[in-house]
Task: inverse folding
């Protein structure tokens, strides 16, 4: 039999190496149980025959699937695309395969998917999960769990630092003269939403900015479109949106109503200009493509995804590279990108 023939069996490798099939299995899956010479001979024969282990059979023998589950709130949200790609890129050169699930921003669906996947994977990466702490503990009791942008005492977390970006955003609008602003809330059960509100609230209070809470709104373009009328009714001059999609929805609706963003002032006239300034959050690709381009707080999502994947890998495979699973804190810090949707009062 050759590597070009029908895929070799474990018995063929055993016959060529002069050992039992169980020895071949141990040499490939638990090499510490086989002496070095036997393992060398088995590996050499397996390579000559083009033998490839059957993953399903290995799973039955070892009790491991070599699969990692990844659950995200909404794959249509462009923020999550680079996170997904980052996790998959990390595991591409490992023995683990990544299985993706989308909850469509529905908590019940998230719980159902997590409970279904625990039987099929060695670990779950939950990105910005919305489920309750009780549900999260139940899932973590059944499989290895790593959280991205969510804290829990039952599972390790990889977190972005929202404080720098929110502080910069508040300082920016304050310098432009804004003193009454709104925060457009995202999902009420979102840890990220609570953190963003906490830090923007503290930054505004420190500078004497009145912050009006509006929402919650669905974290999509339609949510921002609906929020825009409430923004105008609130009499604010600037808004901080939960994410860029909400911010872009506000921009679209205000433009349709003839409200200038960020505002306009007629030369030679006195008094305040009309209009609203908008600050988003995430820096999704289309944020720089709008007219005007969106001022936003950028999220280092690539660093977040690598950190989550490396943390999971180190937990599932003690032989994984011993590089620090978390990037330096500076790599997980948010920062403000000033573009065209913010201007002076």
Result:
């Amino acid at each position: 039999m050759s590597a070009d023939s029908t895929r070799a069996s474990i018995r063929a490798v055993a016959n060529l190496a002069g050992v039992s099939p169980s020895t071949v299995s141990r040499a490939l899956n638990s090499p510490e149980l086989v002496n070095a010479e036997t393992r060398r001979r088995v590996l050499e024969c397996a390579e000559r025959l083009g033998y490839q282990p059957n993953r399903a059979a290995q799973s039955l023998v070892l009790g491991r699937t070599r699969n990692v589950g990844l659950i995200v709130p909404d794959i249509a949200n462009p923020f999550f695309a680079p996170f997904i790609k980052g996790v998959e890129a990390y595991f591409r050169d490992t023995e683990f395969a990544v299985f993706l699930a989308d909850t469509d921003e529905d908590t019940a669906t998230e719980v159902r998917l997590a409970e279904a996947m625990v039987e099929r994977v060695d670990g779950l990466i939950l990105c910005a999960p919305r489920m309750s702490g009780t549900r999260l503990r139940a899932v973590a009791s059944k499989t290895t769990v790593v959280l991205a942008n969510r804290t829990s005492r039952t599972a390790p977390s990889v977190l972005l630092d929202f404080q720098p970006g929110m502080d910069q955003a508040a300082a920016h609008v304050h310098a432009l003269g804004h003193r009454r602003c709104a925060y457009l809330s995202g999902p009420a059960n979102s840890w990220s939403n609570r953190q963003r509100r906490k830090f923007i609230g503290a930054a505004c209070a420190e500078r004497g900015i009145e912050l009006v809470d509006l929402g919650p709104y669905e974290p999509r373009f339609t949510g921002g479109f609906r929020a825009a009328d409430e923004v105008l009714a609130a009499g604010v001059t600037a808004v901080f949106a939960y994410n860029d999609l909400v911010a872009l929805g506000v921009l679209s609706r205000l433009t349709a109503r003839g409200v200038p963003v960020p505002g306009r002032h007629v030369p030679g006239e006195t008094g305040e200009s009309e209009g609203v300034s908008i600050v988003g959050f995430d820096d999704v690709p289309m944020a720089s493509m709008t007219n005007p381009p969106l001022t936003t707080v950028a999220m280092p999502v690539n660093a977040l995804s690598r950190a989550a994947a490396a943390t999971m890998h180190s937990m599932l495979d003690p032989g994984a590279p011993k590089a620090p699973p978390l990037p330096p804190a500076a790599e997980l810090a948010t920062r403000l990108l000033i573009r065209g949707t913010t201007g002076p009062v």
